[in-house]
Write a structure and sequence with these properties.
The protein contains 9 helices and 7 strands. The chain is an alpha/beta fold. It has a single domain, classed as Aminopeptidase (3-Layer(aba) Sandwich). The termini are far apart.
Length: 232
């Protein structure tokens, strides 16, 4: 009887997940840029709260780029508006929004995965706090200039990828989201990922353009994962 109940529950959860993904496809825009089958890249913005209003314009522009390699899937805003649940929390991945995200990752199995978030000015010190790992268990983001922050993705979600996958989070300062300089700089980083076929090609370009910042970001990543994974 217990085995039957567990099986039924699994079926119900699977059906619920499929319904949510079907609904998600109806609510969100999704662009495909395909030059070859590999590598697959997934760019996602607007994962929670109202941040889609700030990430969508940037990713919409990325979706109109003429130079790209592999197969790129671009979702400018996963949700238009939702309750804010931190992506660092496992609770997020049990939410409607988190299940949408997990289904996208499961469907496309990306080698490159880029998350685009937006944060408020009052959150800057918390996101870049050198004591962030001690405080909440994850490394701080690194400022790449003009408040554009870069780091890896949530550890829970990173566990869904292989050690060779390339997973990056970019945080856009929402009070500067309409600043063309800020948008252009974020797009520059995203274009590198869109146009390159290999992780090391992207990292080489980043090291050239942001030597001090990328060195610090790599050191923080390696310390956190004890050199078990390549940044990021």
């Amino acid at each position: 009887m217990l085995k039957k109940w567990i099986k039924l529950r699994r079926i119900c959860n699977y059906c619920k997940c499929k319904r949510l993904f079907k609904q998600a496809k109806q609510e969100m825009k999704l662009y495909r840029l395909i030059s070859s089958e590999d590598p697959t890249k997934l760019f996602v913005g607007g994962l929670h709260g109202k941040e889609g209003a700030y990430t969508a314009p940037i990713l919409e522009r990325l979706a109109n780029e003429a130079v790209y390699t592999g197969k790129a899937i671009i979702v400018p805003s996963l949700v238009k508006k939702s309750k804010y649940v931190d992506v660092l929390s496992e609770e997020y991945y049990r939410s409607k929004e988190g299940m949408k995200l997990l289904r996208l990752i499961e469907k496309y199995k990306p080698y490159f995965y880029f998350e685009l978030h937006a944060y408020g000015e009052s959150s800057y010190s918390k996101l870049t706090d050198p004591e962030r790992e001690k405080r909440i268990g994850v490394p701080p983001f690194v400022d790449f200039g003009d408040g554009i922050l870069l780091g890896s993705i949530a550890p829970f979600l990173r566990g869904k990828f292989s050690e060779n996958d390339f997973c990056v989070t970019i945080e856009v300062p929402n009070w500067q989201s309409e600043n063309e300089k800020v948008r252009a700089e974020v797009l520059l980083i995203l274009r590198l990922a869109l146009s390159k076929a290999k992780r090391e090609e992207v990292m080489t370009e980043l090291r050239m353009r942001y030597p001090a910042q990328i060195k610090k970001a790599e050191e923080l990543f390696r310390q956190y994962y004890r050199n078990k994974l390549k940044p990021f």
